[in-house]
Every structure is written in C-alpha cells, then in structure tokens.
C-alpha cells in the first residue's frame, strides 16, 4: 500500500470531519431560560421596559442616574437534559467603561444539574461616572451584548477555531472514522514502513480532533443590555430661617459655605445645631420630571441653650435630657436667581418650565424671584433647583 499517496487526502478529510458531525447531542434545545425577575434595586435604577426572553437571549433596558445605582436580576436556567451543565463565569467578560456586570449564585455553585433548574443572579451596576462631555440632551446610552457559556464539563482543550458549540449525534460515523485512523496508524507501525516521524505524530493528533469535538459541549446565552444614564438633578431646600437640630446619621443634611454649627448633647444623645443648612430630596430627577415640592420638617431647641446648658472645655454644650426639642414644618419657599452663591444655577425660563399652579407672589420677570407654598407639583428644569426658607429681598 502506497501510504504516501493517501496521507494528504486523509489529513484533509480528518480536518474537515469535525464540521461534518451533526450538532445535536449538546442538548441545545433542552437548556432554556425559564424566567428573569428583579431581586433588588439600588438607588435611582429603574426599568424602561421589562426584560425580554428570546430563546437563549435576554434583553434588558434600564435607566440609571448616579454611580452605584444597580439592578440585580434573579435568572432561572432550566436543564431538561441528562447531563449537568456549568455556567462559565469567566466567559461573561461583561464590563464596559462605565457599567459592571456580575454573575453569582447563593451557594457560589454555577452547575445546572440534569433535570433541574438553577437560580443565578445577574447584577447590572453603574460603576464609573460618565464624563459630562458624553451626555447628549442630558442622556448617555451604554449598549452592549455579552455571552455567557454553559458547558457539560467534558471539555478537552482544543483551539477555538474547531470548537463546535453543539457536538454531533452521528456517533456511528465518529466511531468508524476513529477506527479508520487507528487502523492506518497500526498498519504504519506494524508494517515497519519508513515514514517521517512528524507525519505519524500529525496523524495521531488528527485522531484526537473528532474526539475533542465530540467531547466539547458549549451552549451560549446572550445578554443584550441597553442602559440609559440620565443626569440626575437635585431638589434642595435651604434652611436659612432657623437653626436646625439633627443627628450625625441624618445624611440628607449638607453644610454650605455659610454654615455655622454647635455640638450639643441632650442627655447622652449628640446633636449638631447648625444654621444655613441644606436638606436634599433623596430622589434625583431627570429634566422634565414631575416633582413634589415638599413640606420640610425640622427640629430646634426652644430654650436659650447658651445660658441654660453647660459649655464644656471640649467646646460642646451639655444639656439636661429634659430640655424640650421642638418640631417645625416649613411649607413656604422662595425661588431666587440669587441662590447661585450656594452653587445652584438658574435659567430665565425656569418659572415658565416649572409651571407652578399657584404663587404667594411673583416678581420673576422684574426681579428674578417668586414664592410658593408646598405641597404642590412642578416640572423639573434642566438643572438642579434650590428653594429657600427665607428671602433676602425684604418679602416675608
């Protein structure tokens, strides 16, 4: 037998053989996405649309405003096959410049058992702030598509160029081809024909190709993500009429450049007692949103604490626990173009855009300020808004 005449055609045949193998034993149709539901939302993250499942593709459409906003989904994967499949977390290389995607499970085990379902958790988080220059009309879109691989755990390392995501059911063909390859190799060895050792090695390696492809079973789940980042705008209330009493854990209070504070202990409880504080709405709003102008409740001391409380060497006031703390509600607010000294801008069209239903008085067109009572709604303009308790204009 002239082996040299058949070696090249045989090698070529073995190279194309993996792609002749039908691709059904991977149970492609038996692995499915059973459901996707929200597990947790953090911050201002919301769904523009509910997730859509299309066979092995998930589409999510989200809106976020602040860094660390996130939505975590519970994803249920169903395995109706007779083999276990494992999710390859490393295949899910799903981080953009601004978003982070993570995958985990309750037990850190990502195996979907045969005939079972598996809950895994997909978290989408706004990780790095988008530079202002990339926003268009107050929005930035982060659109990406990611692939999550599942394998049956029998993978043999072979080049990606011959990895077939669904390996063949023509088992008889595969066995016959392997028998042919082994037979030729044994013939060469037993007949003691002189042949290049490299050719024998190459033939042996080619035998492993169909076995490798048969063993490898990879299924892909695609996640198509569209995240709209909107500039989150603040609504803030300047408390410039009264000193405000609050504890350290009240995180919605912020100092201004005009703030002056005292530390006061009433009994064993520590308070800050400050003037010219800003209290911020805990929600951020996009331009055009309907906002509720709020009645703000504050606390203050109804005593002359300087004379009635002990001033200690630690420069704090210590008051008896019986000292009365009073509550006060503020519902009258001033909007003024002078408040840029607190870091808030304004636009000459603000009154028109905000569109309040009623006013205490309105000098916007002539002097740039007006007064309104809460509660009532207004429309958010294209910048953050500051309302003040008191006015510097002589109107009260």
Question: Could you describe the 3D structure shown?
Answer:
- The chain is α+β, with helices and mostly antiparallel strands.
- It has three domains: 3-25 and 167-218; 28-154 and 219-230, Sandwich (Immunoglobulin-like), CATH 2.60.40.10; 235-388, no CATH class.
- The chain contains six helices and 24 strands.
- The chain has helices at residues 3-20, 171-190, 197-215, 305-308, 350-354, 364-367, and strands spanning 31-42, 46-54, 57-64, 70-79, 85-88, 99-104, 111-112, 117-126, 139-151, 218-230, 235-239, 244-246, 253-266, 269-280, 290-293, 296-301, 310-311, 317-319, 325-330, 332-336, 361-362, 369-373, 376-379, 385-388.
- The strands form six sheets. Strands 11, 12, 13, 14, 17, 18 and 24 form a seven-stranded mixed beta sheet that branches. It has a six-stranded mixed beta sheet with strand order 2-3-10-9-5-7, with no helix packed on it.
- It is elongated and about 105 Å long.
- Mean pLDDT is 81; it is low at 19-24, 154-171 and 211-215.
Layout of SSEs?
Elements: H1 3-20, E1 31-42, E2 46-54, E3 57-64, E4 70-79, E5 85-88, E6 99-104, E7 111-112, E8 117-126, E9 139-151, H2 171-190, H3 197-215, E10 218-230, E11 235-239, E12 244-246, E13 253-266, E14 269-280, E15 290-293, E16 296-301, H4 305-308, E17 310-311, E18 317-319, E19 325-330, E20 332-336, H5 350-354, E21 361-362, H6 364-367, E22 369-373, E23 376-379, E24 385-388
Parallel strand pairs: 3-10, 11-24, 13-18
Antiparallel strand pairs: 1-4, 2-3, 4-8, 5-7, 5-9, 6-8, 9-10, 11-14, 12-14, 13-14, 15-23, 16-19, 17-18, 20-22, 21-22
Helix pairs in contact: 1-3, 2-3
